[in-house]
Design a protein that fits this description.
The complex is a heterodimer of chains A (385) and B (257).
Chain A lengths: L9 H27 L14 H14 L2 H9 L9 H22 L8 H4 L6 H28 L8 H24 L12 H27 L6 H32 L2 H11 L9 H19 L1 H5 L1 H26 L16 H28 L6
Helix pairs in contact in A: 1-14, 2-4, 2-7, 2-8, 2-13, 3-7, 4-6, 4-14, 6-7, 7-8, 8-9, 8-13, 9-11, 11-13
Chain B lengths: L1 H19 L4 H8 L14 E6 H6 L5 H9 L15 E5 H4 L10 H4 L2 E5 L7 H5 L5 E3 L6 E3 L9 H5 L6 E2 L23 E2 L5 H4 L6 H5 L5 E5 L6 H8 L2 E2 L11 E4 L1
Parallel strand pairs in B: 1-10
Antiparallel strand pairs in B: 1-8, 2-3, 4-5, 6-7, 9-10
The chains are: A mainly alpha (385), B alpha+beta (257).
C-alpha cells in the first residue's frame, strides 16, 4: 500500500519538499545541541524540563484523542465516522512518533536511551510511559493497516482485529493517564501533584485532538476530493464542545482548591502563571491569550448557530487548539518548576535553536501524517480535485 | 549485569587510587592528619549528618566546606547561574526552610545562611522515579548513589527532588574545572550529579571532604545505627530539624538551629 504515497501531484510533492526542508533545518539545530549539549536551550538548574517535554505531553493527548472516533465507530457502530476513523488513527501514529522524538531530543545522553529497556525499572513511571506509548503505536499501526487493506480489497476486516481494536480504546486512555502520573506523583512539585491532573489531561486532549481533526477535514476538502461529510464533523464538534466544557470545569475546580485553601505551595504557581511572581511574568501574556481563546471557543461551540456554521466552527477549533497548546505545551510543565522547591523564581523561555528543533519534530509528524493520509485517500480514490 | 559493572568500577577505582596516590601529595597530607587510618574503610549502617548552623555562622562568609567538596569532586565553575552545578552550597535560611521562617524571628536567624546538600533520604523520591536505576540507595549504608555511566539525562530525578540537590550537566564540564583532581572522575555532558556523602573517601576510612574542611566542627558525620556515635549523641541531646520531613522522604541531614 505504501506505493500510493509515491505518486502525487505537484502540490503534494511541494508540501513534502517543504516539510523535508523544515526537518533538515531542525536536524541541523539538533546537531548543534548534540555537540554542545542542552545548554543551547533555555533550560537551567531550576527549570529542567521545558518546551520539549511540554510538546511531548501535549502530543500524547492528540494521540490519545483518536479514541474519540474509534470508540463511537467500533463500539457503538456509529457509521458516520466510517470515513474519518482512519484519519484519527493516522493522526495518532504521527503524534506518537512526535512524542517519542520529543523525548529523545530532551535526553542528555540520547545514545543511552536503550538503558530504559536494558534496566527495566517497574517503580519508574517513565518506564511505563515508554511501554504505553510503544504499545499504542503498534496497536494503531496494526489496526489501520489491517482495516485499510480490507477496505482496499472491498472485504470485511478479519475477525481477529476486533478485540485488538477494543483493546486500543482503554489503551488510548492509559497513555495519557500514565503521562499525567509522571507529574502527579511528585511530592516535590505541588503544582502537578493533583489527583485531577489525569482527568484534566484527558479532557483537554479529547477537545484539542478532535478539534485538530475537524481542521484537517476542512483542509482535505479544500485540497483534495475527500469530503468527510457534514454529519461526522458536526458530531465531532459536539464531542469537542463537551470535552472542552469538562476541561474548563476541571481547571476551575483546580483553581478553587488551590485558592480557597490558600496554601502558599499551591497558590504561588498559579500566581506566577497568571500574574507573575517577584516581578517575573514571562508566561503571563501567553496565559491570558490562552484564557481568552478558550472562552471564545467555548462560547462559539456551545451556541448552536455558530457551532453549525462551518466558518465559525473552524475558527472555534483553531482558537481552542491554540488555547490548549499554550496551557499544556507551554504553561503546565514550566510552572511546575516556578517557583522552585526552595521558593526561588527562576524563569524559562525556549531559545531559538530549541524552538527550531521542536519545529523540526513537528515537521516529522506532519510528513508522516501527510503520507499516511495520502495513502488512505488514494485507497478510496479521493486524491485530487 | 549492572551489579557486575558496579563491582568492576569499584575494583577499577581502587586500582586507579593505587596508581594515583603517588602523584597526589595533597591527599596524602590530608590523610595523615586524619585520626582514621587511610585504606581501612569507615563502616556505617546508616550514614547521616548534623549541621550546626550556629557554629557554621561563627565563620561568616566561610566557604571552606564548599570549596573542599567542589575541588575534590571536580565540580566545574561556570560564570552563569544557568549552567550551574553544585553539590553543597549556602542558601538563606528563609529559602532552606521556607515554610518555617516568620517575620519576627531572631534577626541573626533570618539573615543566616544554611548549608544545603543531598539529604540522602531514607525514602528517596529520586531513586523511585529514575527509569534506569542510575541512582539508587545503597542498602548497606543508606547513601544515595549515582552511576554517571548509566544516566540517560532525562532529569526526572531533578524534578522529583524536593530539595534542589541535583544538578544537570548542560554542557561539557571539563573545560570549567579550575584545578583537576586526579583521584575523582570528571563527568560528561548530559548526566545528573550530586553529593554522594564522599563514599569514595569513606571507603578509604576518611571523613567526607566538607566535614574535614570545617574548622568550626559544625558538621558532624556518622552512623545512626551506632548508639555510641557522636552523631547519635548530638541528636539525642539537642533539638534538630530537617528540611520538609512532612513529605515522607526521611531526609538524613539534620540541622541544629
Amino acid at each position: 500500500m505504501l506505493e500510493k504515497a509515491l505518486s502525487g501531484d505537484r502540490r503534494y510533492w511541494g508540501w513534502l519538499l517543504f516539510l523535508s526542508a523544515v526537518i533538515f533545518v531542525g536536524f541541523l539545530f539538533y546537531l548543534k545541541q548534540f555537540t554542545e549539549g542542552l545548554t543551547i536551550t533555555g533550560l537551567n538548574r531550576d527549570v529542567t524540563w521545558g518546551f520539549y517535554i511540554a510538546q511531548f505531553t501535549f502530543l500524547v493527548g492528540v494521540a490519545a484523542s483518536a479514541v474519540m472516533v474509534v470508540l463511537p465507530y467500533y463500539l457503538h457502530n456509529y457509521k458516520a465516522f466510517g470515513k474519518i476513523t482512519i484519519l484519527g488513527e493516522f493522526l495518532a501514529i504521527g503524534s506518537v512518533i512526535m512524542c517519542m522524538t520529543f523525548v529523545f531530543v530532551d535526553m542528555g545522553q540520547p545514545l543511552r536511551i536503550m538503558n530504559v529497556f536494558r534496566f527495566p525499572t517497574l517503580h519508574s513511571l517513565m518506564f511505563w510511559d515508554t511501554v504505553a506509548l510503544g504499545g499504542y503505536l503498534v496497536l494503531n499501526v496494526v489496526i489501520s493497516q489491517v482495516t485499510l487493506n480490507a477496505e482496499r480489497k472491498a472485504i470485511a476486516p478479519p475477525g481477529w482485529i476486533k478485540p485488538i481494536i477494543i483493546l486500543s480504546i482503554p489503551w488510548a486512555v492509559s497513555i495519557h493517564t500514565v503521562t499525567a502520573f509522571l507529574y502527579s506523583g511528585l511530592a516535590a512539585r505541588p503544582f502537578w501533584m493533583t489527583a485531577i491532573l489525569a482527568p484534566r489531561f484527558l479532557a483537554s486532549a479529547f477537545s484539542a485532538g478532535p478539534a485538530l481533526l475537524i481542521l484537517f477535514c476542512f483542509l482535505l476538502r479544500k485540497f483534495t476530493k475527500f469530503d468527510a461529510g457534514r454529519e461526522p464533523i458536526q458530531k465531532l464538534a459536539l464531542i469537542v464542545t463537551y470535552a472542552m466544557a469538562v476541561n474548563v470545569f476541571f481547571i476551575l475546580m483546580e483553581l478553587f482548591t488551590a485558592l480557597y485553601s490558600d496554601i502558599p505551595h499551591h497558590v504561588l504557581h498559579f500566581q506566577y502563571l497568571f500574574f507573575g511572581l517577584d516581578g517575573k511574568a514571562t508566561l503571563v501574556p501567553w496565559m491570558w491569550v490562552s484564557v481568552t481563546l478558550a472562552v471564545i471557543s467555548l462560547v462559539l461551540l456551545i451556541v448552536p448557530a455558530t457551532r453549525r456554521k462551518e466558518t465559525t466552527l473552524g475558527f472555534a477549533c483553531a482558537a481552542l487548539f491554540t488555547a490548549i497548546w499554550i496551557e499544556k505545551g507551554l504553561g503546565m510543565v514550566v510552572t511546575g518548576f516556578v517557583p522552585n522547591p526552595i521558593g526561588v523564581v527562576t524563569e524559562y523561555f525556549p531559545t531559538f535553536p530549541e524552538v527550531m528543533i521542536g519545529v523540526g519534530v513537528y515537521g516529522i509528524g506532519l510528513l508522516i501524517i501527510t503520507v499516511l493520509y495520502k495513502i488512505a485517500l488514494s485507497v478510496r480514490g479521493d486524491v485530487s480535485h | 549485569m549492572g551489579i557486575d559493572r558496579r563491582k568492576f568500577l569499584k575494583v577499577a577505582g581502587v586500582a586507579a587510587l593505587g596508581l594515583a596516590s603517588g602523584s597526589s601529595k595533597q591527599l596524602l597530607a590530608r590523610g595523615s592528619s586524619e585520626s582514621t587510618t587511610a585504606g581501612k574503610p569507615a563502616v556505617g549502617k546508616r550514614w547521616a549528618m548534623v549541621i550546626d548552623l550556629k557554629k557554621c555562622q561563627q565563620a561568616e562568609n566561610c566557604t571552606k566546606c564548599v570549596d573542599a567538596c567542589h575541588k575534590f569532586h571536580n565540580v566545574p565553575e561556570f560564570d552563569n547561574p544557568k549552567d550551574e552545578i553544585k553539590w553543597i552550597w549556602k542558601e538563606p535560611f528563609e529559602h532552606a526552610f521556607h515554610n518555617q521562617e516568620h517575620e519576627y524571628a531572631k534577626e541573626e536567624l533570618k539573615h543566616s545562611l544554611a548549608l544545603l546538600l543531598c539529604n540522602h533520604c531514607d525514602s528517596p523520591p529520586c531513586v523511585k522515579v529514575c527509569p534506569t536505576q542510575a541512582t539508587w540507595k545503597r542498602q548497606n549504608d543508606g547513601i544515595v548513589m549515582m552511576d554517571w555511566h548509566r544516566c540517560i539525562g532525562c532529569r526526572y530525578c531533578v524534578a522529583a527532588c524536593p530539595y534542589g540537590s541535583r544538578s544537570f550537566n548542560w554542557r561539557d564540564p571539563r573545560p570549567f574545572i579550575e584545578e583537576m583532581h586526579d583521584d575523582f572522575p570528571t563527568r560528561s555532558r548530559g548526566v545528573v550529579e550530586k553529593c554522594t556523602f564522599c563514599e569514595e573517601r569513606l571507603a578509604r576510612g576518611q571523613m567526607p571532604a566538607c566535614v574535614e574542611a570545617c574548622k568550626e566542627k559544625a558538621l558532624v558525620f556518622g552512623d545512626l545505627e551506632d548508639p555510641n556515635s557522636e552523631i547519635r549523641k548530638v541528636l539525642g541531646a539537642n533539638f534538630t530539624i530537617r528540611r520538609r520531613p512532612e513529605l515522607g522522604t526521611k531526609p538524613e541531614v539534620y540541622y541544629l538551629v
